[in-house]
UniProtKB/TrEMBL annotation:
Protein name (database record): GNAT family N-acetyltransferase/peptidase C39 family protein
Annotated organism of origin: Pseudoalteromonas fenneropenaei
Matches recorded under CDD domains: NAT_SF
All residue ranges annotated as the N-acetyltransferase domain in the record: 14-160
Superkingdom classification of source: Bacteria
UniProt-listed SUPFAM superfamilies: Acyl-CoA N-acyltransferases (Nat)
Positions in coiled-coil regions: none
Length: 374
């Protein structure tokens, strides 16, 4: 990134640049002066100076670092989050915060991000006015979010200039409560968006997992089979279809034990037989993005199996619920809340269409599967 010098007053100018390890002590000092609670530790600041998914900029006045801004770019998505923005008290009121935020937006856009999100205390009226002036819109709130018990407003700005036309659905977000229940969590979101009386609960989450589990998976507890999830929806009064691009038992390539593979094959065949009896249609075909668009236009809720490789590098199968599509992106509710994430980071997550096409192909066999609920 090239340095940027902008005149703030006739006698002062601000220089915005990337932070380096030499800035560590002054960044720690700014953190201490600007925040009474919820401070970044010196160790955490040092980590943010080097991580690939972070954008850490500082602003200098007269050769002195007086402010910093930190943005976190979520892997595999078009989403970025303003993690922290701080200006020393003596440098406030000079336009530094605005200039720093604009440069952070530009850097996030260059990193391929379409949206920048943030949380701000409902009591911080000055910051709220700044964000509103720069085009941020409030779309939610967290109650009792900060250490002092104050509420946090959730704000977002589209930093990439997309048309914004497309299909969207109102889908409530639910966080999975175990590492293996993404499928039930995604299904409960879809069902609740159709019938508001279907309130997602942990008990229901675990019940669906017991009904739909593959028993075994690459490690730990088994995940959920697409036909099993569709059957769970059917049992609860919904109509469900399954789209799979292969007929063989799923997820076997990640299991070494022949005994486990035989059990997974037995479960797979039983799900297929149950589907025939229960009226769940199984379509053995590849589903293209234009097909997904038509399904959403028909009012159906769509769950899709993705690989988490582009999100966390783990290559695990993972269920998400699609909430919208436009010319550039597919938007999903991700039920998994990872470390250092806020719930806002998992809701309506924008994923570039080209990236989504790769993410929705799992394993060496390139498994593609989705479920429709109506």
């Amino acid at each position: 990134m090239t340095n940027l010098a902008v005149a703030i007053t006739p006698h002062r100018e601000v220089l915005v640049r990337r932070a380096t390890n030499k800035d560590l002590n002054v960044l720690n000092n700014i953190e201490a002066q600007c925040f009474a609670t919820d401070r970044l530790s010196k160790r955490s600041i040092k980590r943010w100076l080097t991580v690939k998914h972070g954008i850490l900029l500082v602003a200098e006045q007269q050769g002195q670092v007086v402010a910093y801004g930190l943005v976190w770019c979520l892997k595999g998505t078009r989403l970025a989050r303003l993690y922290s923005l701080a200006v020393l008290p003596e440098a406030r009121g000079t336009g530094i915060a605005e200039q720093l935020l604009k440069q952070l937006e530009q850097e996030a856009q260059h990193a391929g991000r379409a949206y920048l999100r943030l949380e701000v205390s409902a009591n911080n009226h000055k910051a709220i006015r700044l964000y509103q002036r720069l085009g941020y819109k409030t779309f939610g709130a967290y109650h009792d979010y900060y250490g002092d018990g104050s509420e946090a407003l959730r704000m977002q700005k589209q930093i990439a200039r997309f048309a914004g036309d497309g299909i969207s659905q109102q889908v409530p977000w639910y966080m999975q409560t175990t590492e293996f229940t993404c499928g039930p969590a995604a299904l409960m979101m879809a069902m609740a968006s159709i019938n508001e009386q279907c309130e997602p609960t942990q008990l229901e989450e675990l019940a669906i997992w017991r009904e739909a589990t593959t028993i075994f998976m690459t490690s730990g507890h088994g995940g959920c089979h697409p036909i099993g999830l569709a059957l769970s929806a059917q049992y609860r009064g919904f109509s469900a279809d399954v789209y799979i691009n292969k007929r063989e038992a799923l997820f076997l390539e990640g299991v070494r034990s022949d005994k486990k593979k035989r059990i997974m094959e037995l479960v797979h065949n039983d799900f297929v037989n149950q589907a025939q009896v229960s009226g769940v249609d199984i379509h053995y075909q590849d589903v293209k993005q234009q097909d997904v668009e038509q399904l959403l236009q028909a009012g159906k809720r769509v769950l899709v199996l993705i690989s988490t490789y582009r999100l966390d590098g783990k290559k695990a199968p993972h269920w998400v619920c699609i909430t919208a599509m436009d010319t550039h992106c597919i938007y999903v509710h991700d039920p998994e809340l990872a470390t250092h994430q806020a719930a806002i980071d998992c809701q309506h997550v924008p994923i570039a269409r080209a990236d989504f096409d790769k993410m929705s192909s799992f394993g060496a066999a390139r498994l593609r599967s989705l479920i429709t609920i109506e």
